[in-house]
Amino acid sequence: MQAKTTILSLPTEEFLHPGTRACTGCALAIAYRIGLKALGKDTILVVPPSCLTVLQGLFPIASTKLPCLNVTFASTAAAATGILATLKAQGKDKIKVAAWAGDGGTSDIGLQALSGAAERGDNFIYLCYDNEGYMNTGVQRSGTTPIGAITANTPFKGKLQPKKDVSAIMAAHNLSYVATCSASYPLDLFDKIKKCVDLPGTKYIHIHIPCPPGWGYEPRYGIKIGRLAVETGYYDLYEIINGEFRLTGASEKLVEKRKLIPVREYFRAQSRFKVLTDAQITDIQKEIDKKWNEYYKKED
Amino acid sequence: MHIIENGNVAAALGVMLCRVNVIAAYPITPQTPLTEKLSEYVESGEMKAEYIPVESEHSALAVCIAASSAGGRSFTATSANGLLYMHEQVQWAAGARLPIVMCVVNRAVGAPWNVWNDQQDSISQRDTGWIQIYCADHQQIIDSIIKAYWLAEKVSIPIMVCYDGYILSHTYMPFDVPDQKKVDDFLPPFNPDYALNPHEPANLNTVTLPDVRLDVRGELAHGYMEIRYLLHEEMRKSLTVAAEAEKRFVDIFGRGGDPYIEPYLCDDAEYVAVGLGSLTYQLRVCVDTLRKEGIKAGVMGIRFYRPFPDIALANALKGKKGVIVFEKALSYGYEGALVSDLKSALYEHLAGTGTLPVVQNIIAGIGGRKIRTEDLTQNLRTAIKGQVTYEPVWIGLEI
Prior knowledge:
The structure holds two protein chains of two kinds. Helices cover 39% and strands 14% of the residues of chain A. Chain A has an eight-stranded mixed β-sheet with strand order 2-1-3-4-6-5-7-8, with helices on both faces. Chain A is α/β, with parallel strands linked by helices. Chain B folds into two domains: 2-186, Rossmann fold; 261-394, Rossmann fold (3-Layer(aba) Sandwich). In chain B, the strands form four sheets. In chain B, strands 3-2-4-5-7-6-15 form a seven-stranded mixed β-sheet, sandwiched between helices. In chain B, strands 12-14-13-16-17-18 form a six-stranded mixed β-sheet, sandwiched between helices. A two-stranded antiparallel ribbon of chain B has the order 1-8. The longest helix of chain B has 30 residues, at 224-253. Chain B is globular, with a radius of gyration of 21 Å. At the A-B interface, β1, β2, α3 and α5 of A face β3, α3, α4 and β9 of B. β2 of chain A pairs parallel with β9 of chain B, so a sheet runs across the interface.
């Protein structure tokens, strides 16, 4: 097992120029910066329209020091396949391909292409940065928007349906590696990318990304809110290696502690959940407790 | 080497001869035998390429777009709703200036479902920024693919090689398969100015503003409008480049001629039937009949639909008494798209000279409706007798 990366052992080489077009406090900027460090310089990126398109800058200025192909919304994974096919035809097997797409581009419009590539076992890493809505177009609901969240098109009642579990869908493709991460734990993201990048076939990493304008909190609280999602047991950090599930990092520690922060604290820290009633929060807390009791049982 | 095979095999052989690196395809009738054949070539080792059996047409062109952006020669093929499902990617490939070649095996589009031939699928993609070539026989299919890669890579514009479903795709005809060595002489390896490369990073197809903007070196970079203007401008110029391709092809393979139009008995003709694809060869039979009746008729096949060979057509049709445009597609709410384009070219180049021909539009074969040669001939006779109608005439319509 590889040693855990620390802030001191993190590579100093940067692939993201300072001064991107990200919003103040954008957690994607953190995840992207650290993620690119893990991917390294022999990488070609694929990005569909999303916050990342804006973050990377407007023509002819780019904030990324790696080559990047911007593609149509639904085609991210297929485009990764296309680059790989040429690299293979040309015998350039050292170059990696990494797709970075948002939650809408992954769970909704991009799911077909992603499922196709995963089923074919095309050898690239797909990173879904999940800010839980179409934030780039002004905060509309997506498949991964959680129940109860106010968005621009669930304006009064909040979203009525629960979050789509994309990682589970990807795990059902029998991938060599599926993991969940959070921008609030960037070193965990770094280690997980490093761990899977040379594994065969399609690798899938789902990254929870707090979003100040979309979630309704002051930009300085982003990391704290991302951590609360994990520490309340609401969003779990795990990895599935060749079908083997295990909790990782901060979530793994929660099993040892056996004490979750009440999920109410997570919801009440963001204005998007203002219509969630106490009764609804109690129900969600019950579901979380049930899920974690299963984790505890497994450990015992 | 002369062989007897179907049109889809002619296309597959053309793709193999062009040493394509990446093939991506999703099945749709009547394209399937073409891509099945390619999978056979690749799996047997006869052809060295990556074959990606994608989960949709949208992804098929996505693979080609990305493969081409990385410096690979790429190919796909589709028909009907497959092409419509690709539409977003079709526009993208042109805007990104990628020299992809795609065969469109022409078929009617739904709804209602119909698997038979017409040309509504490719005609509906007229304004996407792709060069469109229409084939009238199997020799033209295989030759057009070879010429298309040379031209596409020269002008950085993707090309659709269109041929009629079943009528060409599934019928057997003799044709010459060019020698690999000659094809290699004609078509050098794909060597783009830029291909995705970690040693020379670039952010391709990123958000581009309406106005021009300085880059980090202080040089003026194009705005969106400049990029789109260049696509149009260079597509217009590709007519000249196509002539160069044709000349090279004739020099090496000993066949070919006019790259844009294919006239038959047009020089002394007073009336000319105009069309795209296999219909133009059927019209030759009609014209032979009319000639025997003493009517001076000819046929003008259009090989290039985009860029539109307006000058070549205006010159060829100048002073004719009548032009009868047969189409297997239309622009709903007006008339056939080709007849509108042709009238525009004739008006532009001949208005006021007293040489403008009368133009009649005839719609035929929609959704695979049988086109009988006698009916074509009779409709030509009627049009020639001066009974020109304001609305298009539909052959065989029973309503």
